[in-house]
Design goal:
- The protein has three helices and three strands.
- It has a three-stranded mixed beta sheet with strand order 1-2-3.
- The protein has a single domain (4-78), classed as 2-Layer Sandwich (GMP Synthetase, Chain A, domain 3).
- It has helices spanning 4-25, 47-50, 54-69, and strands at 28-36, 39-46, 75-78.
- The model has no long low-confidence stretch (mean pLDDT 90).
- The chain has 79 residues and is of the alpha+beta class.
- Helix 1 (4-25) crosses helix 3.
């Protein structure tokens, strides 16, 4: 039996896997770090890590798509 957090984490990981190819096309990537109380922690990698548009990518792309797929998500933060 999977607990609610495990299920939430699984859904977040699956959604991130769907987003990764779009980031990878531009030389970037995203890594799941954790989820706590509706806040997903990710690490932007590659070109995304040092890009001046990283905040827009994080909020406008990653967070928006995650919230669509996993409504329990309140926020996505980069660590």
């Amino acid at each position: 039996m999977t607990n609610a957090l495990g299920t939430l984490e699984q859904h977040v990981r699956e959604a991130l896997e769907e987003l990764r190819p779009a980031l990878q096309m531009d030389g970037g990537d995203v890594e799941f770090v954790g989820v706590d109380d509706g806040v997903v922690q990710v690490r932007l990698l590659g070109a995304c890590g040092g890009c001046p548009m990283a905040t827009m990518t994080l909020v406008g792309f990653v967070e928006e798509r995650l919230k669509q797929r996993v409504p329990e998500i309140q926020q996505v933060v980069s660590v």
